[in-house]
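re: that chain from earlier
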Amino acid sequence: MSATNDIPNESLRPADATHYLALLSRWWWLLIAGAAIAGAAAFFVTSTIAPTYRASATLLINQVETPGSIVYSDVLTSERLTKTYRELITKRPILESVVEQSGEPGLTVDELASKLDTRAVKDTQLVTVSVSDQSPERAARLADLVAQTFVQEESSDALTRAGTTRVVEPAAVPSVPISPNLRLNVALAVLMGIVLAGGLALLIEYLDDTIKSSDDINVAAGLPTLGEVGRLPHDKDRIPLSTRGLPMHEAETYAILRTNIQFSSIARPARVILVASANSGDGKSTTSANFALACAESGKRVALIDADLRRPTLHRAFGLQNTTGLTSVLLDGASLDDESLIPTTHPNLFVVPSGPLPPNPTELLEWVGFDAVIEQIKAKVDLIVIDSSPLLAVADARILAAKADATILVVEQGRTRASALRAAYHAIARADANVLGVVLNKVRRGRGSYGSYYYYDRAYAVRGRDGSGGKNGHSPRRLPALATVGAAASNGHGGGERVVDFSHPGENGKHDVA
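^ sequence. v structure.
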């Protein structure tokens, strides 16, 4: 299967345990924030609510005694009386009498009814009379008063002579409020906060199709990840270079990228490599400059060409003037002179700035004179690295991809959308370009993540089966992810990734992809 065919269109990421652990590692702060905010809000609201106390008195309901022994029907009658009396306690005659005797200013029958609760104890002849109030003393006083008033009314034959009642347990003043329950409210709020925060995180993930990992790259375009580069110190005037005091592990990523690209093009060495991106700001110019510098440090003579004839930046990275450059050579009949290939302060690295911006950059790049300039530069150096305009903005990069031996795509973690990467790959695939893979740029490093590349962790070590390390006691570098995937595919575990087959170039010299 050719590298330019059958691009996957899946938009969903693999939903395995690793994926959800990655989600948790990205959104743990939101879960904690949701729990903390909800818990604090519940604590504050609950603390402002006045506590409510409940006091209860207990009544015993008996059938009127008759001569002779007690039979089972008498017990059933007493239980029915218990339920009947429980309802009678809450009726208006009893409540009106309680209000009159209570002496509580402003207390009404309806208010007392809202505070009162009566319950029959199951399988007994007991009835509990409970009153809830913000004052524990008043709650106990009103509960006792309701119970005593009912007993008085019943004993005076005001209601019925079917049974007798008496208070078996007067109400005690409660010391603990029944509401609000601070611990329960806070616990439920924390749980609800975690659930809502988790739902919000899942919704954001569902709506967010930006590239965040090598898995996302594989799902979006079926391409291997050549390297992951962390966020570098940004200067709007100059591109950060690996020789300007970058952290050692970030500078080393470009050396690893160089090695991975060499492995990717081992069957057909690429002398002209295009570095492109879907959108502006993904970091293609930074990647092309540092990749060219890493190749120059390995001993190769490298020419870095700024073919972004719309917004060139490479001349600022190396402190050069942009008065002459690529456009000057093209307008001068495509004749390259020694002054056009500008040496830098870095050994073996030469730069061809863009030169004055032309009104027709696309036509200049399509012109056969550009091909002649590339051939002249190839005669002087070992490798050419070309920086281009964004793929989805203009057609310049598609033209250059067709002329280059290989193309590298650069995506920014958390910014480049999967749809944009897929569209960029479609664009250069139609130009019959040889795409080696993708560089994941501006990766957010976790604590202790030195060298923590997705492909690096899963790759095979370049070492013997005996596990011996490299020279001078240093651990050898590892192969890129595509080597691992290739081995997995040969064992029948494809995993859905596209793998470059180095041994069998396809049509037009392009590498076949399995």
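The chain has two domains: 53-169, 211-513.
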